[in-house]
Amino acid sequence: MERERWAEALKDINWLCGRCQEGRLRLPDKDVQSSMTADTQLVFHEDWFDHDDVVSQFTALMTCDNVRCADPVAVSGKTQAEHFQVDWDEYDVIHTWTVEAVTPAPLPFPLPAATPDAVKQRLRSACQLLWSDHDAAGNKIRQAVEALLDDQKVRKAVAVPGAAGSAGRRQSLTLHKRIEAFSIKNPEVGDHLMAIKWIGNAGSHAGQPLTRDDVLDALEIMEVAIDDLYVRTRATLGARVRRILKAKKPVRRK
Ligand SMILES: [Zn+2]
Predict the structure, then answer these.
(1) Are residues 101 and 139 in the same domain?
(2) Could you list which residues have their CB under 5 Å from ion ligand 1?
(3) Considering only CA atoms, which of 177, 229, 125 is closest in space to residue 221?
(4) Are residue 92 and residue 130 in the same domain, yes or no?
């Protein structure tokens, strides 16, 4: 995950396209519409005002640079321009973008094709909510963990025997209990899912709202869990490492 491309204020917003998951979203300069915020206009003409403090509201249409996709993506938020003197009469400008909405939402990492659809769908919703409501985004990632456990055939409920002569009943298992059950066969991924659960828990409790960084933590941990379960990069590479260690020389792939 390219964490630096997902910070609060960005110098570079060339995110991965959420549609094709190959191209980058490009922001053509000429297509950016911006206007100084009212707060900036109030003080713009004061002697003490520094032009690097101009804050503008912007809106633009980004386009995926994969020619087979070229999906348009609407983006808006606030922008600020920093000026750097490069010669006596020449300045370079670097824009900082604080994005407040993107539709359709880009993805912080490609979702492997083998990822269950129910997991993909919830993670895409989380990526959309990331821009507007961190707690709701955290909750969606928690739902993605539930969907992942469903796909891994971790049971949702247990049978509770009734009193003598009466019928038993089914009792739903909490997410915590389901992750514990999953951890018996896969403790490493189980730890990852439990960490995501704790992040989601904090978001569900009033008074401790999630930050953007918390949500990105959960997404980053989810990326590794998905890879371990459905792509198996570490397991496949680990097997090759063990073969090389045993042979004490390079081992060619068949
Ligand atoms: Zn694309």
Answers:
(1) no
(2) 17, 19-20, 23, 64, 66, 69, 71
(3) 229
(4) no
172 is a domain residue: no
Residue-averaged pLDDT of the chain = 88
With beta carbons less than 8 A apart as the criterion, state whether 112 and 193 touch.
no
Whole-number Å distance, alpha carbon 211 to ligand 1 midpoint, is: 28
- CA 105 – CA 137 distance, rounded (Å): 12
* Owner of token pair 């890879």: 227
pLDDT of residue 73: 93
How many whole angstroms from 25 Cα to the centroid of ligand 1? 7
Segment 127-178, tens digit of pLDDT: 999 998 999 999 999 999 999 999 999 998 888 887 776 777 888 899 999 9
45 plus 132 within the same structural domain: no
Domain housing 13 = 1-110
Does 175 fall in a domain?
no
Tell me: cis bond preceding 209? Omega within 30 of 0 counts.
no
* Local structure of 179: helix, strand or coil: helix
Which residues, listed in sequence order, are joined to residue 90 by a DSSP beta bridge?
87
